[in-house]
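User: Please predict the structure of the protein below. I'd like the answer in structure-token form so I can feed it into my own downstream comparison script.

Assistant: Understood. Taking the following sequence of 968 residues as input:
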Amino acid sequence: MAHEDVSLELHSSEFEDSEAEGNSSTNPYARFENAGRRTREEILLHQATDRVDSKKAVRKQSYLHGAPSSAYQQSYIKTNVDAFMNTINHDPKTCLSGENIQRFIVTLVKRLKPCHKTKPVVSIETIKDYWYQLICYLRFQYKDISTHYGTHEVSRINAYLSQQVSAGNLTKGQWVSKQWAGFNLVQRMTRDYFRSAFQNGVHNWDVTIQRVLGIMLQVACSARPGDVARTYLYQGDQYVKWKDIELRLDKDASSIQQLRAKVTLRFTKGLKDTTNVDEIKWFDPLDDPSQSTSCTVKLLIIHALRQGNTYGRTLAEVLKHTSGQRGRLVQWRFPDRPVLCKIKRAHLLDYDHPAGTSQARDTMGVMSCITGLLKPITPQALRRGSARDIAHLNKPLKGTASKAVASGLGHKRKSLNTGVTEGYVGPAQEQTFNARAKAPFQDRLAPEWREAEADERLPPIRRPTFANREIDALAAEKGIDAVGSARRSLIKELRLKDQAQRAPLPKRNLAQDNHATKKRKTSSTAVPDDATTGTSTASGGSNNPRLPLRGLTDSEINVQAPKHTVPRQLIDPELLAPSATAVLSTQQALDESVPERRISDMALEDMEQLSVDTSSVNIVQQFITPAAAGPSDSENDSINPEEAQALEHDLLMASIGSLMTEEAFNTPWELAGDAFVDHFAAINEFRIIGKWDHNDAEEIAKHVPTGGSRNDPVAFLHHCNKGCGYARWDPYVVQKHQATCTGPDGHDVEQDTVHEEHRCSEEGCGKVFKNRKALLNHKYQTHEWKPRKCQSGCDPDTSPVYQTYYEYCKHQRTEHDGLPQPQQCPLIQDCGLELVFERCNLLSIHLKYKHQLNALEVQQYLPERKVNVGWSKKRDVKKTEPRQCPKSGCKLEAPFTQLSSLRDHLKTAHGMPDEEAVILAEETLNKKMRKRKPPTAVNCPEMDCKSTASFTQVAKLRKHFAMVHKLS
């Protein structure tokens, strides 16, 4: 056959040429033959170094990877696995067997400690997490793990863990119950937080405002704490910066209500190292004045103004600068700074270092305490509350990926579920924060809080502290040692008990706080006018001086009065008169856009009860019916009924406006719009802490932030809660005063004022005291003290010599002030403190400050003690039995305990001679009257004095010096 003669040489050159020609024309992938040529050349060029580097990288590869928290868990497992291998003498080069893996799990169950102090044992979920990390580490470390670990070992470990749950060695489920903090609860917490700051004072208003901003930034963005602040264990720039905040002003707008916010979250959970997968949130300012403390836009502007991070020192200057910018965006001076800054130990902000997530946790704990929640709220509850609020909105959200969108794009269900469709749609642009604020969801499962009255004082912005004796008493009751973590657990238990049983605090006399009286005095700790202005200076300036607002809150609030809060026609005209400038400065202009609800909600019968004084009527009449030039007749002077009705309406509105103005100044946290920003951007009261000169402007600038939009620092004053007007910057001094205060009419503030005539004359001293008695005590205790031994019962031969008055007093308190036997508070039913007192001094302090008893009331609960007549001589003072007048027929029923009182009564009421009255008084009271030397009369020692009078009393001689010789 012909075909048998045909021979094919497959390896012949002719066949190869024909194959090449065929491939070039029929193979569609021939054009990719040069793919990777550049990389190949690089590999060949650097083969010498790459060969060594690659070998080192493989041999030195570490197991730790992923996020810092994941790397920490991996390192935790690696360290414990190595320790376990050492205990069982296992070779680290070989993999653990299935039995040893289970033995390691058993060891973890016994040795792991729970994170929560009240949790007895760890949960099964925690053990499973460590189990998973263990297997991941073994798979990385050993190739033959599959031969040692399989489904058999998995079944045995699962059975063991289930048995441990039944035995109570492990818990199952979440130990801490879930909480939901919706907008309604958060609004209440922020308002109480600001209210407490005004009532009790804060160390630094910058810190207070930032803490609230951190919470509201999470709420507005429905974010986690780690989305806006830097997560624990991270060290980079994984936080929100000022450049991530865009505030755009509407066209032809001049108010903060026309600012639109856009926040970019670049470092959300699980995507911190992934670029261009940002979450973007939009929201606007809140319109309701009662929600001003929860308005994130206002808080952002206030925070930036106080830091000097804006181009302008006031809101008006910032808005003017923004309106001239391209795109009308607020420009930041330091865009790379963190929005939430680190809080240093000195209660100052570190502008260059970001805050951690623990700041939000601490803030929520303090807010929960102030609001009166029975259980503190965690930051996770904010995100859950946001989800619940959004789920209950009246209308569904638009702009999200849905089945309809996926169908329109031709996406399968898998693309919709895996987020591919969401990537096409982009971020949702619905303003969910504003929708939640307009119609807050009334959550039936929201935590309960203690309702506080309008004039009730809230707890201060700090966690309650407890004395060591309270902690030790609780430890003795529980039979444990109060050391380490056990002591912290006891403190937490005391704090929860105090929070649950907290009684309403004493109410302030609002009339005394809000109106200046004759007894009110100016703070002596005010900063001079030439105080240093600061650490951070903003560009621009303001020609309007900010005057302190005095007598309107718990202290002299030195902030500029809010602008634009009440229509001018609603203001009491007397407030606009020159006489009102002492209270309201001319810079305190008022708004033209007050919410109408604050007027319309007032009942008609309440309006009819408002009264206006005659001076106000006369002033308003001058504005409404000005007198015409020239003489006027009676017909022109008369007012028709329509004019009278209009006048009555204007007077009524003026009185309402006056009340609204006073209410706004008393509750600045409810100011609206620009007024709220102006108020809190300028306030700069500080609560004095530490031992430094609080009157030195340069020293104040080291401890209190200045500059930016802030006013000059002014010390916060604590007021007596009995309404007497007494105020001091030291709260302990006020507490001491309250123990003896009898109310508004029983105390004169002027008696506590220091005078130059009571200045110590000793060389190098120069201290000034409020009265002569305090000056004499100071001289005796400091300058005239003579070293002595104990004179209260100690052995004179062994007693040390006390060189100072304070050492002697300390010895008296510790050695000679004991009670006959330890006892509890006699008023334990009122305070509820199961404390045991061993010294009279401690019991006296407790009765004074805790129960507000005066000195006479305290003595009723203390045993009789030795009374010091003088520090050089001591005698036992026996209590005299009260006796009535010995004269028969005397109508006076009051008993006598003092010889001088009974002697004077016998002389004046019964006409007895002096000697007979003394003898009868001594026989009646069984006491002897001390005989005093007759005073020596002296003349005025001044050489040029023309007076011939002689003086037997020092007070009269001092008065003569002051009036005749003008000596002080």
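That's the full token string. Residues 361 and 378 are 6 Å apart (CA to CA).
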